[in-house]
Amino acid sequence: MDARSRRSQEALRSAVLTLAERMPIGDVTASAVCSEAGITRDTFYRHTESPTALLADALAEEIAEAMEVLPRTEAIGDGERALISHVHRRSGVYRGAMHPLLAAPLRSALERSIREGLVLWAQLHPRIVPAEFADPAAMRIAVAYAAAGTVGAIEEWLRGDDDDIDRAVRLILAASPEWWLH
Fold first, then answer.
1. pLDDT of the chain along its 182 residues, tens only?
2. What are phi and psi of 152, to 5 degrees?
């Protein structure tokens, strides 16, 4: 990506995050994002299809940065803590995207990020994977189950008023299949 496109993309992401902090993402328009970012509608549509898709992209990038902790840790809880800390930091954005569940593009981006993290975790720690999940199709099922469950737990956590990150991490890990934790 050239420097101009990168600047436009960064301006768009910053603008949508700013607006999504102030109002539900369903109320954010392309025009509002363009105005906040100081770019044209043509530029907006060259980078994204909607404010919700743009927000999902921006949050996925932040999650990817938070998940950089995985290769440097021996405890899956550190990855969960990084993820929950990100969600907590952006709780206004996530809560503004729930009606009553996360908007589909955000839910999909969050789930995809968690799947990628779980696959990486299993690759980094192959000894934890039970024989039942040794074949790729079975492992995809285990990863899908864990990722969807984690997203559901995050949605439930966002619906409440409990901002205790450590408690959320403990509860999500306690609900996870034990083999992920070894």
1. 789 999 999 999 999 999 999 999 999 999 999 999 999 999 999 999 999 999 999 999 999 999 998 888 888 889 999 999 999 999 999 999 998 889 999 999 999 999 999 999 999 999 999 999 999 999 999 999 999 999 999 999 999 988 999 999 999 999 999 999 87
2. -60, -40
Q: Measured between alpha carbons, how far is 136 from 143 in angstroms, rounded to an integer?
A: 10
| φ, ψ dihedrals at 123, nearest 5° | -70, -40
Cα torsion 14, 16, 17, 19 to 10°: value is 120
Burial of 134 (0-12, 13-18, 19+ CB in 10 A): exposed
CA distances from 26 to 37, 48, 52, 93, 108 (A): 18, 16, 7, 11, 16
Residue type, 70: L
Q: What is the pTM of this model?
A: 0.90
Q: Report the C-alpha gap between 128 and 146 in whole angstroms.
A: 15
Please check whether residue 80 is in contact with residue 49, taking contact to mean a CB–CB distance below 8 angstroms: no
- What tokens appear for 37 in the block? 């970012």
